[in-house]
């Protein structure tokens, strides 16, 4: 058994355990393998183990991997999907629209409009998640949920016909006590419920929250997608490629 297959087996046991404790079905929680900084061959090995959803942080980085993974993305049986989960600069929207199957970190009206225009030019309708900032770290990206920016974006999204809103994502606070982390995840669910009631034209079913260190807490609070990298692929090397 390979290093990756052993890690995946342990991870699946942990996800199943978290689902049991939360009274949820395992099939209701989607696993995204976060492959940023790992080579294309690691993604290919993960795909052969049955994983089909991958998350990348940088447009530039994935550009270098995309050609090596094209056959896996086009195969008839269980093709892989690759989402952009890192911050998207508006000037990279065109390349992101060409390159990714979805963008999970839309955090401004400007980015949404640029991505919508870019998707239209390449004849795509791109699934998106809205990234919401619910922890206090200044380095975190995302929409402030009570901001005018968030209100405007939610109003405009139904008219951006080349985007398909699927839900929300957030990143929990680093190194915080469990109750603080759970409160962050609970808040995302509560904002989803509030916005779903107010904006009936938007589909906000997906709650992407929880990573290697805190996904059991996210599952307990209603995550429908967790994003796991280190627990799958091992310790991540620092990114050394070109800046975004």
Features:
244 residues, alpha/beta, TIM Barrel, 9 helices, 16% strand
What does this structure look like?
The longest helix has 21 residues, at about 180-200. This protein has one domain: Alanine racemase (TIM Barrel, Alpha-Beta Barrel). It is of the alpha/beta class and about 240 residues long. The chain has helices at about 5-20, 40-50, 60-75, 95-100, 110-120, 150-155, 180-200, 215-220, 230-235, and strands spanning about 30-35, 55, 80-85, 100-105, 125-130, 165-170, 205-210, 225-230. This is Pyridoxal phosphate homeostasis protein.
Helix-residue proportion: 40-55%
Mean pLDDT: 95
- Report the CATH C-level class: Alpha Beta
Per DSSP E runs of 2 or more residues, the count of β-strands stands at 8
Order of secondary-structure elements: HEHEHEHEHEHEHEHEH
Looking at this structure, what is the CATH superfamily?
Answer: Alanine racemase
Poorly predicted residue ranges: none
Query: In terms of quaternary structure, what is this?
Result: single chain
Name of the CATH architecture: Alpha-Beta Barrel
Q: What Rg is obtained from the alpha carbons, in whole angstroms?
A: 17 Å
Structural class comes to: alpha/beta
Strand order of the largest sheet: 7-6-5-4-3-2-1-8
Query: Strand percentage, roughly?
Result: 15-25%
Q: Based on Cα principal axes, name the global outline.
A: globular
CATH topology: TIM Barrel
> How many helices in DSSP terms?
9
